[in-house]
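Justification of resources, computational component.

The compute hours requested in this renewal are based largely on the per-chain cost of generating structure records like the one below. Each record pairs the submitted sequence with a full structure-token output. That output is archived, and it is also reused by downstream analysis tasks.
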Amino acid sequence: MWRGILVFLLLAISTVAADAQRRQINPIPFSHEPCSVLDGRPCTPYYCSPLEPGPCIPEIDYPYGQNLQLTIETVPTEADRAKYRKPDHDLDTIGDLFAELRTCWSPPSDNARAGMQMAVRFSFNKAGGMIGPPQLTYATAGVPADTRTTYLNAINSSLKACLPLKFTSGLGGALAGRPIAIRYVDNRELGK
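The structure output for this chain reads:
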């Protein structure tokens, strides 16, 4: 009888230990792990139960890297000079688009401020035109309103001078309606 109880206790302890070891938190995204109908839990990426030990980490694949963000410096570094050359063909890649947008930038000469940063967001249509005017999303803090207006006007005129962009049909279809965020950095040494 004692022997049966001892065997039962050992089996119970090993089952609990194996279950605890199997349910450790995996910090790696969960989409790569296979899911089976024979699993003891639902097969959805969002499932977690209040009856499980440990924290409940949502298993969601966030779309990192799916947005289009670009930084344009007025004076590029030596390593980035190649990225500021205008493509000599129709724009077929995101790199071509970014290079074209970099060549479009012409900073204001009057009312300029060293270190000024401004970010705008807008979208293109399939034909290479803008869908609406660029929306201001960021400007350097403490800058007078007339300086912000000067830079926003320079951004708008620089973009209008480049339009319409010549997209290939593949890139035009892929970019149409997607928001593009551009941060302009005026890193010139003004007043010297």
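Residues 106 and 158 are 6 Å apart (CA to CA). The radius of gyration is 28 Å.
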